[in-house]
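Changelog-adjacent note: as of this version, every example in the card shows the full chain rather than a window. The one below runs 303 residues end to end.
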Amino acid sequence: MGIPQTGIFALGDAAHIYLEFNRTTGTDALRFVKTVVDIHEPRTTVGGVNIVIGFRPELWRWVAPHESPEQLTGFNAPLAGSEGYVMPATQADLWLWIAGSSYDVAFDVAREAVTKLATIAVLERELGGWSYRHSRDLTGFEDGTENPALIVAPHLVTIPDGAPGAGGSVLLFQQWRHRSAAWEALPDEAQERVIGRTKPDSIELSEDVMPPDSHVERTTVEEDGEERKIFRRNTAYGNVSEHGTIFVGFSPDQDRLERMLQRMAGTDDGVRDALTRYTTPLTGAYYFVPSLQALQVFAGGRS
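Full-length structure tokens:
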């Protein structure tokens, strides 16, 4: 089977740095990919640091057409929802996720990567992420409780063998700023109705009391009665005055991620995710995260 980038599933890292780059004008796509891969390859799981890389889908398809999922596209236009609600599109060419046990080791690797890419890429955005209360986000609720178990996650959220891009995964990457004062003004019972789970123990509300605009209800995507799972690796970001959630979601296909966002925005039925009234999306991008085998084709000057 295609082997996914191991950092996707390396739970427990406390410090995270996310970098988004665009190619400099005139930089050849093949040279760009080879340079990025040479940064990635020797650093994976070495020295307590993991690097995961993703490329703009259109760019990756140009250099590796047989290792690219069909019809995968970037987040190239804003997503419009009900009540004038909009999720922004901030697609870039390259996404680097550097994670480690402490911020200093991630920081050093991130600086090295930026330096090595300086002649071929422009750093568009940088975010630092961190774990909050082990597994909660800044709403105070458990995050990622519906993630598949690690023993099955690689099979569920990567492209199956025999399909273009096997072993790779589709990534949705977004920065969400929280309106913490408004959120914290709600009593716990009201917060639970917004989320769709209990706060202390993260038990999903029963169907008879689950609000149709709850976050759980709007982010659940089903097909033929079966939930189409994704694998979340979200972290918190920011400081005391401005902070929120970095959404890092992996899927074997783009469709379930797009449908999730459309349901959150109320694009089709006008029912907007209640959580979007307390959080604001600042960025939005899709990346293809190739398998290790697909990356190795471009390592060490090979083509």
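Structural remarks: Residues 106 and 283 are 22 Å apart (CA to CA).
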